[in-house]
Design goal:
278 residues, D-amino Acid Aminotransferase, Chain A, domain 2, six-stranded antiparallel β-sheet, alpha+beta, single chain, 2 domains, D-amino Acid Aminotransferase, Chain A, domain 1, globular
Amino acid sequence: MVLNGRITEEKDAFVSPLNRGMMYGDGCFETLRWYSGNLLEWDKHFERLESGLEYLAIKPDFNSDELKQHIRELIDRNRLSENDAMIRVQCWRKGERGYKTDSSKMEWMVQVKETTSGQAPLKLTLAQTRCIPSAALDRRYKFSNGLNYIKAAQGAGKALCDDALMLTVHDKISETTSANIFWVKEDKVYTPDVDCDLLPGVTRGLVIEVIRSLGIELTEGKFEPSEISKAEAVFCTNSLVEIKEILSLDDIMFETEHPLVMKIKAGFEKYKVQKLKG
């Protein structure tokens, strides 16, 4: 791993147990994928990380090129240059205990781990835990405190499901604990809009771009849970799974090889290849 700019073995990495990241979740992170030598939409990921730090009034210790170089060095050290890998950049505020702080200094780390896309369609359950409203905390960034996601994921585990579909406090469809959600009905695609207290994922934006480029009608809006129960097919998106089909939502089953979803996946793959080659 990289800890504050230096490559170190995980067993030798020392972080004070009194750090604000652990005590308060005072920080943010970014997760993205390494594609056998390349990064997809690096600028978008870095911009979100940088903007999240700015929102928290934390001054970054690196610029885009410096952080990318640290990632490449860590990938090489772990012999993952020719593999696909998960990359997580975690940042937290350096300072003493207490909610009130004038510290803008940061500590940070990068970890990498080999990953694959070989995963079966996912089973979802409807979460009882709601998404944090944007009025309480800006939802554009990945903040370190994810207790509501943890509670929803625990509920999914008890229901023997892979993930949970979360609603807003006003009972509108928002997202899963780790991905954005889309569904297909009558040759149209639907997804919650950004006012539904969701994290607007980088991959979500790319998939929306692909859908529109294919001439497929897309509607972003505020939807009741009953709307997704009428769907022919459902899929979710994030930087690691890219586009992953949903098998079921509780007792409701969906088609997992829907022609429109296959078309979108092929369009995304073409987009990805072009970007990575460029």
